[in-house]
User: Fold this.
Amino acid sequence: VQLQASGGGLVQAGGSLRLSCAASGRTVSINRMEWYRQAPGKQRELVATITLGGSTNYADSVKGRFAISRDNAKNTVYLQMNGLKPEDTAIYYCNTRDRLGIPTGSWGQGTRVTVSS
Assistant:
């Protein structure tokens, strides 16, 4: 599965951004869709997940501020980010897993989010 993330940019603290990630290729294998981020000098971390049925989970650091959603017809996952903080600055990536939890996507280049204070 190939993944193309977009929607990043520069925003002031407190602002909002909406990220999108479109999947192509063997999309029938997709069950779970996920957003990750990697800040400079840090390991990549899981931000949010959404299952095929719409169940969601979030990292504690983004709960109440971020919302993940998906459009199965478009094979696209979204991340609405509100109340952005400088510590949210990172490159954001999406990935996919099949029903067994096995990763199915290629990481791609991600989309850069920069939050200024």
User: Anything to note?
Assistant: The longest strand covers residues 17-24. Strands lie at 2-6, 9-12, 17-24, 32-38, 45-50, 56-58, 66-71, 76-81, 90-97, 111-116.
